[in-house]
Write a structure and sequence with these properties.
Strand order of the largest sheet: 3-4-2-5-6-1-7
Largest sheet: 7 strands, parallel
Structural class: alpha/beta
CATH superfamily of the largest domain: P-loop containing nucleotide triphosphate hydrolases
Low-confidence stretches: 383-407, 420-424
Number of strands: 14
Shape: elongated
Mean pLDDT: 88
Helix content: 25-40%
Radius of gyration: 26 Å
Number of domains: 2
Order of helices and strands: HHEHEHEHEHEHHEHEEHEHEEHEEHEHH
Length: 424
């Protein structure tokens, strides 16, 4: 879509063309006119989709250059690298020598930053922690803020800076709020809903071309690590379906701890090349296939070179690997054998998963959680009818027998179950 659709000023359109931008991104087409019109926006789009350029153009279209002491725009970013990127983007696109923009960084001198603020600035870019620190020193005047922006919001949540974001936003009052993130989840909304409850939600997927053939993919989104353990235990209760399973974790220590919290009979689960000698272990995949009673193999990505996953019907990613290449290598279809690759992800892991989806060129279908899954909440206290079975690993809650088989299987799993039943 041509840049003309964005209805930029002649100066900004010429600047974008000079920089080599001839077409508009999806996120820009969907949100820029709303930003220019003063609406509050929650923008969800993957990395590289043009989120930063979108609000830079929106701010430059709205900003009136006057030599005021107080800033008109406050942009919060997760780190100094992003601060520098945002400032560079403004300067390169605006080409306006009258634009006064500065960054507040932990590596800088706070006294010098306050002096620069007093001289007058249009736009301030800062981490939430630094902005709040300067604000408490009475160096950052928020009384004339017109637009409050949170960029890379998912990273700010990941670093635990939500409280500072909320406090700064509340100090700005009734202004235009913009938040941009690669993912949308509960923790993000806990941060922004208090100050932008009626924001317009805009989403752009911008997936790449699908070039890789993979196994059937499924995703379970859960709030925390303990709920992942509960979910794995719920699924593994059905030994008829999950007769041979490989579960990938990131470290050998995690594999050791997870083995202790699986609610299976002795010999049903083992660790591939275990870190501790007293753990039940298997050294090669051939042994795993040949031992009928062993149906769950925990495999650590740590130090793993290669592993043969052929003829494994279920491949679990209990954690998202640090490298997307590792994840992709596990799910590539290399034979006619039909496998299902199931991923568990928390809110904090979703940004990495979105990058994987971009590289695959497709979204991973999200599955409903089983009805009998216990969602672990740290504030929960055990009740008489919902006791925690400490002997089973701390977070296992006994259920009524009538509820013990209420699974929400995906289509791929159901198909495998049907095939198994027909064979009998």
């Amino acid at each position: 879509m041509s840049l003309d659709k964005l209805k930029l000023s002649k100066r900004l359109q010429a600047s974008m063309t000079d920089l080599g931008y001839f077409t508009a991104k999806e996120i820009q087409l969907k949100s820029l006119s709303r930003i220019i019109g003063g609406q509050s926006i929650l923008g969800i789009a993957p990395e590289g989709a043009g989120k930063t350029t979108t609000y830079v153009l929106g701010v430059l279209m709205r900003l009136k250059y006057t030599r005021d002491e107080a800033p008109k725009v406050l942009i919060l970013a997760p780190n100094e690298e992003k601060i520098n990127e945002i400032i560079d983007r403004f300067l390169v696109i605006s080409k306006n020598r009258d634009l006064h923009i500065m960054g507040l960084k932990a590596s800088g001198s706070m006294e010098e930053e306050i002096e620069d603020l007093v001289r007058g600035v249009d736009i301030v870019v800062a981490t939430p922690n630094r902005a709040r620190a300067v604000y408490l020193k009475l160096g950052l005047n928020l009384n004339r803020i017109q637009t409050f922006i949170v960029d890379d919001a998912e990273e700010i949540v990941k670093q635990g800076m939500q409280t500072n974001v909320r406090e700064l936003a509340q100090s700005c009052g009734d202004v235009q709020y913009l938040a941009f993130s690669t993912v949308e989840h509960d923790k993000l909304h806990l941060m922004i809903d208090d100050f932008m409850p009626f924001a317009t939600r805009v989403e752009a997927e911008e997936l790449g071309e699908e070039t890789l053939e993979t196994h059937d993919l499924m995703l379970y989104q859960v709030p925390n690590f303990t709920t992942k353990i509960n979910l794995l235990n719920v699924l593994m209760r059905d030994a008829e379906v999950f007769d041979k399973v490989v579960v990938f974790v990131n470290s050998r220590l995690t594999a050791h701890n997870l083995l202790k919290r699986l609610h299976v009979a002795k010999g049903e689960a083992a660790i591939y090349n275990p870190f501790f000698h007293d753990d039940a272990g298997i050294d090669n995949m051939q042994d795993f296939h040949q031992i009928p009673e062993c149906r769950i193999l925990l495999v650590a990505n740590e130090g793993l070179t290669a592993i043969d996953l052929s003829n494994i019907p279920f491949i679990f990613h209990f954690e998202i690997p640090e490298s997307s290449d590792i994840f992709v290598s596990h799910i590539l279809k290399t034979s006619a054998f039909e496998s299902v690759a199931i991923t568990f992800a928390t809110d904090i892991e979703l940004p990495e998963l979105r990058k994987i989806e971009q590289s695959l060129g497709k979204k991973i279908p999200v599955m409903p959680l089983p009805d009998n899954l216990i969602i672990y909440r740290p504030s929960d206290s055990p009740k008489e009818d919902d006791k925690v079975d400490e002997s089973q690993g701390g977070a296992f809650h006994k259920k009524k027998e009538s509820n013990s088989k209420t699974y929400n299987y995906g289509s791929g799993v159901k198909a495998k179950m049907t095939k198994k039943n027909k064979k009998r």
